[in-house]
Amino acid sequence: MLSRRAQIGSRCFGGGPRDEGYVSDTGEGTRYQVTVGGRVMVVDVAERDDGGLVAAIDGGDEIALRVTSGPLDRLLTLLAGGRSVAALVGPSADGTTVVVDGEAVEVVVRDERAVRLASVAADGRAGVVETSVKAPMPGLVVAVHVEAGQQVAKGQALVVLSAMKMQNELNARDDATVKEVHVEAGQTVDQGQTLITFS
Amino acid sequence: MLKKVLIANRGEIAMRVARGCREFGVASVAVFSDPDAGAPHVRTADEAFPLGGLTPAESYLRGDAIIEIARRVGADAVHPGYGFLAENPEFAGACAEAGLKFVGPTPDAMRALGSKTAARKRMQAAGVPVVPGTVDPIPTAEQAAKIALEIGYPIALKAVSGGGGKGMRVVERPEDIETSFRQASSEAQASFGDAAMYLERLVVRPRHVEVQILADEHRNAVHLGERECSIQRRHQKLVEESPSPVVDADLRARMGEVAVRAAQAVGYTNAGTCEFLLDSDGSFYFLEVNARLQVEHPVTELVTGIDLVREQLRVASGEPLGYGQDAIVQRGHAIECRIQAEDAANLFFPSTGRVVAVHEPSGPGIRIDGALEAGQAVTPYYDPMLAKLIVWAETRDAAVKRMRRALGEYLVLGVKTTIPFHRWLMEHPAFVAGDMDTGFLERHWTPSAAVPDDLAELAALVAVVAAHRSRATIRPAAQANGADGTEDRWLSFARRSGLRVP
To answer: How far is it, in rounded angstroms, from Cα A89 to Cα B64?
Structure first.
């Protein structure tokens, strides 16, 4: 049996009956660039005469979208190709959080103008990327396992942070060289505070 | 008969007790720390008074301040909930001295159970089976290594004053024992102010099965069947159910009889839980008695139909139980999922922040014991549990299906939760088959941060619809709304305030 979720994907979509009153309106459509979990999609959206929307993901089949309620208290319900969807939608640090199907998914939605702006901004920043480890939550630094200048391997323990009654080990995401250690054991840190920078 | 109960706790358990008091016809009094001034438990009780302070040590652990408030407001009893002061014999004793009934066991019973080594001796003397190991604290790492070799690996190092997995370590190999001993001992010193450790043989692939007991002050005691709590991470329970998929009537009767005997060995009164390790051969070993109401008590309530908080209040009022073991009947199956503010895909990292919106499941067989609501801050000061989702159905299979349905309806925006983990678990063939032990998570949980294609597309559609609609609302009204030219201002306001997508 196909999961309900599987039936909505653009590749699986298109078998169901279309809503009555469907009018293709590609001339007035809006193009969005959508990033989800490292995947970049192009979603074309057009408005229909009956107030509904029609969308296509990466030039795939058109999906009729009809908002059935909301957004009220951030709950947005819609019919996507006939499938009933309930989601919570709200802004996050980098874009939008969509809570749907029991999962919280980070989504960045940009229209064409925003895409152009972002690419201009990225050109200006090129080559000055510096990676660091930041505290994922406020807590107490219990131990620091590395020092400046040290080579670390992917997965190696860097800092032990105690929060919410649990000790949490922060590990290196990649092989790197420690440039600077900004904290010491016994220190209290805030969420987002830089703990270690890599060169 | 009690008249007014002060609840020395916060969050969902404070609400659970306040609701029980309301139903039992007893007034309730809440206390709260500074960060909890707007917390739901404050509103659930009949009265509420500030304790001040930020951390638990500055607030919910201040027994003297709590007793002072209880006296001032004319309370005649204190319910400790779980955690904080719930298993603190000094606090229970101080309540008694202040003329307040402590809703729980006596300080003496607590003391007899609080030190695990002392409890072990008492249980062995009462004929309760225990895991092979030391009874007395081990003074040095070198001695621990020597004793461990005699008992045989793997072994479990445990803090004498610990509990709930805190200060406990598993040692698989002799070369790790001394380092582990020192680490666990210093953790125990930091957490409990007591570095004393003991060790036991680790039962391989055990189930964690515990038995609920109820004892009145007239020497009557019954057990309310078992709870299976094998789905754990770092010895913290994540999912509990009743009955256990492997405990039959005969085993239940034997474990229950031992649990009641264990309680009576220390003169236990009120509600308590006897924890056991259940070996694959059906033998079981006493772990400890939790001298309090448990987090997972609702699964027992749902299958026995007995309101444990009401029974606690009745017993504390001096009433006899009024029924015997024959009256306890289990019906159907209940499962509880602890909804924690943790990112299960990322090592269950705590997720702090503000809960922006919540959409909770409802309908047949669903119970939510929670203090989760929009606007609520999730801070590092307290336990990361947001709510308990509990379902009941006529069979385990039906309960699993109901839990899947409920989890699918549960939407929380603002902090990461363990809901995706629970959804994974409810689909896992081994869990569905009831085949589990306390190592289930380490063996089976392979988290992935990757977003499946179908979910990514669904989320993309939702986000695009939201973004597109927020664009539409800032267009001139005539264009957005056709010939009529007006948009309902309430609708427009609701759209803008409900949805701000950059």
So the answer is: 45
Nearest neighbour of A36 by CB, restricted to B352, B456, B498: B456
- B297 closest CA partner among B271, B322, B318, B317: B271
pLDDT tens track for A100-147: 988 899 999 998 877 777 776 666 554 444 578 888 777 888 889 899
Q: Rounded CA gap, B318 and B218, in Å?
A: 8
Give yes or no for A73 touching B (CB within 8 A).
Answer: yes
Length of chain A: 199
Beta carbons within 8 Å of A166's beta carbon, 6+ residues apart: B234, B350
Question: Identity (one letter) of the amino acid at B245?
Answer: P
Q: Does the annotation count B292 as an active-site position?
A: yes
Q: Which of B324, B290, B120 is nearest to B216 (CA)?
A: B324
> Residue B259: CB partners within 8 Å, gap ≥ 6?
B211, B213, B223, B274, B276
A60, closest residue in chain B (CA to CA): B457
CA dist B347 and B125 (Å) reads 42
- For residue range B181-228, list pLDDT tens digits in order: 998 888 888 888 888 998 988 888 999 999 999 999 999 999 999 999
CA–CA gap between residue B262 and residue B258 (Å, rounded)? 6
Cis bond upstream, residue B154 (ω within 30): yes
Hey, of A35, A36, A111, which one would you mutate to test binding to chain B, going by the most B CBs within 10 A of its CB?
A36
User: How many whole angstroms separate alpha carbon B242 and alpha carbon B162?
Assistant: 26
Q: Do A5 and B454 touch (CB under 8 A)?
A: yes
- Tokens 């597309």 appear where? B457
- Beta carbons of B414 and B364 less than 8 angstroms apart: no
Mean pLDDT of A19-37: 66
ipTM given for this complex: 0.76
